[in-house]
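Action item from last week, closing it out:
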Amino acid sequence: MILLRGRGIVPGVVEAEALVTREPISGFGGIDVATGTVIEPRHELHGVRFTGRVLVFPGAKGSSGWSGFFQSTRLLGTAPAAMVFSVLTTKAVLGAIVTRVPTVVELDGDPVELIRTGDLVRVDGDAGLVTVTRREPAAPRSSVDDFIQ
């Protein structure tokens, strides 16, 4: 189990599966609000739904309209269950607030490096805590794996 301490910016407690990306997410043109899917063509999560999952990402990119698109996911029932991000910007904070999902930022470790997609994550926006439970152990890697990719 991993415990990360940070700053809660949207209260509430949620436990759900993590969806992790190393890339910031664009609101305008980057997500399909009707389905909660990342549609930005070159994004590593292209075609993946974040609905009902803990979205772990560096932060927002693009225009100040980012928050409006994430608010639309709340209104349409396609929002993430919670958000954890590492780069604190006004657009990302406002997006979390209008989406109304528990959100923790400014963690004592990089969440993008410490959390893996599929981990069970408990986000406590009241206490500013993120608890990570591994779903399965990481597979050992070798230099052969790097060569094949």
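Closing note: The chain is about 20% helix and 30% strand.
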